Amino acid sequence: MPRSLVTGGAGFLGSHLCDSLMASGHSVVCLDNLFTGNRQNIRHLEGRRGFTFVHHDVVHPFDFDVDFIWNMACPAAPGHYRFEPVKTTMTSVLGALHSLELAKRTGARVLHASTSEVYGDPEVHPQPESYRGNVNPIGPRACYDEGKRVAESLCFDFRRMHGTSIKVARIFNTYGPRMHPYDGRVVSNFIRQAVMGEPLTIFGDGTQTRSFCYVDDLIDAFRRLMDTPEEFTGPVNLGNPHEFTMLELAREVARHAGVACEVQHRPLPTDDPMQRKPDISLARRVLGWEPTVGIEEGIPRTLEWFRSVRLEDYPPPSPNVMQPEAQGK
Ligand code: NAD
Ligand code: UDP
């Protein structure tokens, strides 16, 4: 039985990954400090043979006898990481360090969840892996962006120094069931607001773009990436290249929710990237992967999940701190 450790396994992506691994016969240690994750996400796995939940903070070392380490732990939504910026940097850097040290001790292979945020507010569009980015190192997003950049550099230093087996995934905006309803990200905000009959909050004029990947497609890419030959390390962009504006997204969510598209504009947060779209040629070539679920299918599936849960079971993990003006103060 292959043995996997999923850090951040009670979160959005981590819990779907745990499902996928359990379904294909892995034993799974799901490690999480439950900052933005929720035990509800893995409730159906708890008690099943081969599944263990461990409450632990990755800033402290950990030790498990495993073959695969999937390093997902890190708050991912801007509102949460801005609430605890220093802890976010520490989680990103020390979580990667401790995953890599464990891999060095055990010979396990590490898949590290990096991000499109390493490209910052990109001047190259769409972004290929060779683009080195345009990150503001002292801005309010830097705790996350620079934390993730250091984590990538640690992966490659462990590779060069110790021959550690690494796979670095640069994940672009992903959405789906089990996104925290109060994580402040755009898809969860719009869907929650539509379900609750509130206006959809658009930051800025809504012309900024993103490209959204449905979670099942991303997990498929993770599994393919972990299975690539030893010499393939990435970084590799994983995301859906279909790009649209936040205004278009608002209209789509309202249409699928069957509500009028009433929007409320708020100030654009500092350093908010104006556009983002992955160049996924490398993933297509090496992983033989292509996203298959568009928003016309993914939004209804996500809406269905939001309608099926009790929102009070998902208390906001943090006050969701954005810059003061974005909160209307
Ligand atoms: P999430 O917040 O749902 O999951 C993160 C998980 O990590 C949560 O369960 C949280 O409780 C846990 N965690 C946070 N700090 C921890 C700590 N110090 N110790 C142990 N556990 C800790 O977010 P997600 O969307 O599932 O993101 C998972 C990973 O993927 C993150 O590393 C994130 O940076 C990366 N990523 C996600 C996206 C996306 O669009 N979802 C995009 C780019 C990168
Ligand atoms: N956004 C928005 N309304 C919201 C939340 C976010 O218009 O209620 C915008 C945000 O300013 C950004 C885009 O949507 O331009 C995506 O934001 P998200 O936090 O989901 O992801 P990221 O900025 O990390 O790509």
How would you explain this protein's 3D organization?
With 329 residues, the chain is an alpha/beta fold. Helices cover 35% and strands 17% of the residues. The strands form 4 sheets. A 7-stranded parallel sheet has the order 3-2-1-4-5-6-11, sandwiched between helices. It has 2 domains: 3-173 and 213-238, Rossmann fold, CATH 3.40.50; 175-211 and 241-276 and 293-313, UDP-galactose 4-epimerase, domain 1, CATH 3.90.25.10. Helix 4 (142-162) links the parallel strand 5 and strand 6. Residues 77-78, 173, 185-186, 189, 201-203, 208, 210, 246, 268-269, 272 line the site of uridine-5'-diphosphate.
Name the CATH class of the largest domain: Alpha Beta
Q: Name the poorly predicted regions.
A: 323-329
Helical percent range?
Answer: 25-40%
Known CATH architecture of the largest domain? 3-Layer(aba) Sandwich
- Cα separation of the termini: 54 Å
Rg, nearest Å: 19 Å
